[in-house]
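Intended use. Records like the one below are meant for learning the mapping from a protein sequence to its folded structure. Do not use them to infer anything beyond what is encoded.
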Amino acid sequence: SNIISQLLFIWVFRLVRLCRRVSDIRNINFSLNESETAKATGDKLESIWNAEVNQSNEKASLLRALFKAFGKIYIPLALWKICWAGFTWAGSFWLLQWILMYQEARETASPWPVHHAYIHTAGLFVCAVFASLCFHQLTLQNTRIGIQCRAALMVLIYRKSLRLSYVKGGVGDVVNLISNECNRIAEACVNWHFFWSAALECVVLLALAIVEIGVAAVPTLVFVLVVLLPLQYALARYSSTMSYRTTVLVTQRVHLMSEILTAIKLIKFYAWERYYRKKVTQMREMEILEMRKALLTKVSSFTVVFIAPVVSTALCIVTMYKTSGVPKPHVAFTLLSLFNTLRYPLAFLPNAERSIAGVFLAATISLKKLETFFLLPEVDLPGTIEASQNPDILMTIEHADFTWDGDLDHPHIVDLSLTLRRSQVIGVVGDVGSGRSLLAAIMGQIKRTQGTVSSYNSTFGFIPQEPWLINATLRDNILFGLEVDEKTYADAIRFSGLTDDFLLLSNGDETFLSELNLSPSQRQRISLARCIYHNPSIVLMEDFLSDFDQNHAKRLFKECIRNQISKNRCIVMFTQQKHFLPECDLILVLKGGKVVEQGTYLDLKSKNVNFSAWVSDYDVDATSQNTLRQLIERNAGSMQNSQLNEQTISKLIERNQLSVLTGNTSRPPANFSNQDMVTRTIEANQLTVHSVHDFDVATLEPGILSETAQGRTWWLPYKQFLQEKTGLSFGITLITGFFIVHGVRFFSGIVLLRGFAFSRLILQKSVALHERLIEAVLRAPMAFYDITPLGHILSFFAKHLFLIDEFLPETALQFMSFAPLVLGTIVLTAIVVPWFWATLPIYFVLGWFTIRTCLSVQRKFQLLEASNKSPMFAHLSMTLEGLFSIRLYNVQERFDLFNRTLIDADHKALYSVLLVRTLMALCIDLISSVFIYITALFVILFPVSPSKTGLAISNALQLLIFVPWFIKMTFEFHSSVGSVSSVIYFGEHVPREERSKQTWTKPDPTWPMNGEIEFKNITLRYHRYGVAVLKSVSFHILPKEKIAIVGRSGSGKTTLLMSLLRIAEPAEGQMIIDGIDTSNLSLSDLRSRIAVIPQEPVMLTGTIRSNLDPFQQCTDEEIWKALKNVHLGDKIQEMPAKLDTPIIENGKTFNLSERQLFCIARAILIKTSIVVFDEPTTSVDKETELLLQSVIRENFSDCTVIVLASRFRVIVQMDRVMVMHHGKVVEFDTPLVLMDNPKSKFSLMLSQTGDVDPEKLRALAQAKAD
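Structure written out for the chain above:
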């Protein structure tokens, strides 16, 4: 578009017209200017930042780099501000004064020529139009540059993330940088010109007043510069402080809520919902108290904006009366109109100061965080040498040390010397952290502090323990950016065992994948196929075979890894499974990050190396634990996932379907009329929630006060009438006194009634709303969490509640204040100006048409913008989870390109919303300008007194302030109420786990005393019409029996535990514990009487005491006794705070075995006769396993113990073994009996292990039987 089209926003009219014609605006092909794309802005800022770092190193300034990148186009925007102020003052001061002087001259013997009046009236219209154009150009261009800064920073953050080995805080910290810190800097760009100009505008206004009335303006000068401006700055600063403190509290609350949702399964196991609901509510109340202070501050600031013109005008009039008599109408109303423009700088100042303070003051928040992030050390990739003297050598490492940057959870690799050769399989055993660190060191993904690493034209492939897949098609996940080679592709599919899976997928390898439609083993095979297809010379494997059962794992290792992948390649495989070690050419034994032994399997056996201390005997079925693993936070995740704070990830990330390689995204429906209808219904419901008294105070009182403010302008014409008709000078004194008293009453009424009413309202209603929400979420069944992303749930506790707390009270207050002001201005003008009322329908029709047209288009763009955010953050989350794979397969450029595409898509929608809003505001301003012009024209055509002329035009000029602000507050109020609607709608549609309004049986406090459990024909389905997972299961467990439950994947072991605790409700049958049907008990009574020790230990934020006894039902002596029983007493005693020692981030100050012992101590304190173990020894080494088994035997000998077991060493020491198959109990007898029956499924499992000594197991079973 040409410059005229851009200046007058003509091209935006065409955009709106085009958007109204299409049903889906995503079909419109429009793009950002090349210079505004994420690539252009990101490249520009990156080059400047790199130069800044090279020049200043650690003293590099991001603010200086931003100024160099965008300052040349940002600083000249001040001209729009100057032009806007000039046109505003020209209309409000000079032209108004000339029109009033013309009216005064008409009453004299020498009137002015009438064409002067028409020229001045037309000039008033032109000034109003150009002032509006300048203002909206300033706002639009400010925001445009803010969006460019945001895009550039987002690109830099993403590119930096691709080069980091470790990000402290994980995905959450990076997302916070993008979603919060970048937005703050963008907001500062929007408000900076308003910030610096506020004081300057006030000084210029006062200078104009001094030019007009001389020394009579001095008191007003003192009042504005000494009282108003400092007061407004102080209020803005205090509000900024309160907002920051509130943000800290909100962050803590959301972090706690995130942690609760992450560990919701554990919380339901122990029936701790009531405790954590109370804890979150208490934090919420603290947060609301801070918000109340901030709200009262904003109300006071808003009041200053309203009373400033009134008091300033009053001071001038009183001073003039005392010094030179009663001022003429053209002077009085010119002053009033001039001081009305004080509202502009005073209104924008608080918002500008709040946004600027967080970014520019001492650079302690946004800029400092970003600078720190950008200066983090990057990965040190191994050096590449073209050729080696021995062509079989792929890589050599000599006396090298490696460390994770800032990550103390991973052991460092010390003094590593290793040679990698072709056709070699190297097995790595040892503690989990050291194995992962070794693989990362070989890949060059962690920092090398000394030694040498040489890579001879080597390429890498990586198969992590947790398979990392992108949300694309199966084919895209395997090709991963390479061109397709059909033969190589077919081989990769065949060797990885995916051929049969193709038959199960509707679209074969073109099926679009998601986490919900693939089993863990399928995901691992896709990861394996990707590695095979890329044909790397060095393949690193991180115990990925643990997700397969024995037969699959052995076949995959032999046919794929040993016979295919290892040909002409080197394989380095970290494993915790003993039966793979004899097939390895070299075995490395790690301890504490150091290779303590190395050699072949026979060599190490001859040295009596105890492999059992590092690896496990055969697990009956490792994959059987996956369901529970997904529900309870892992402590020992994959190499990438161990770097990520999963609790923080769930704050802001909600995965969406997207493809990095194809650019496809799942598109939400563009038609949201149904949702809009729901929103309107809920809005009406929300209004009825408030009490009648609250609603009356909230609406009636601002209306009365606003009408009082509107009526303050009547005193000037009334004063002129008294002076002209009676000649009595006391009239001005009385009326001025009345006016001053009225102003004080106005101020007091606003601050006291409005402030206290709204702060009380927000305290009561916001807390109640949050209480309803958390009650609904914590009482939801586990199936709800399985199908609902945690990010989606958290968005209601974070985003929507923040919008409600931060914007709803303020926007509602201003909406209800400006509405009567706009109405009062129109009514006042219609009363004063003859025949003006006849034109009112035209203004209303034009305004209604403009708002309706623009609002329909704006909603489409808002929906598009909202739908673009999930893919953007999901792509970032996916990238950080798969950093190793992205770098090893050399697809950084492809991921960066897709990231820039998502940023551009988001910013196109965001900019479009801004354009439509600007167009709508401009059109409303043009209608207001016509209103002003018609008002001025009518007072010329139908002569009225100078006093009434001044009254009408000065009030009409205020529409340029009142109407745009009123429209803005209307939309923001609507958006805030929409958040209320969303919260209520979500809360009301969350299913309840427990039937309401039912009389539950209250068990005896000592129940269950014996621990007798009986299942009678239990049938369980996870979905109402789904396949039965448990099929008529019946068994009887005697008091104090020790039972092991075994079975393959999908046999129903985990589901049996879920049914026992009614995590999933049975469809048929009875569960009887100590003679009581558990279906008649409340969930709280049932679950609190059964102790569960999960496979992966979870510790929640709080203290040691709150993690062990949240309801404070145990004495300190009992807690200490439990800790001593699990061998933790001495360690806790050495801590300064002892039982009050803080627990942070899942108890990372304690190692894995200690956290597991804490879980056992927790079970001891429950004092129950039924204890359920979900194989607590799976993730620990042999030494720790023996310690845990000893603690279990010592503390639960008098309890009924149920163990979901996978290690035969544990199983054969139980009283009886329950074997499950396809949801049924097929065997239930003592281990010895089952082992003596060669046809039993248990014997079949035992015979398939191959490397377990049956005689040793039989001896253990015989000892138990004896």
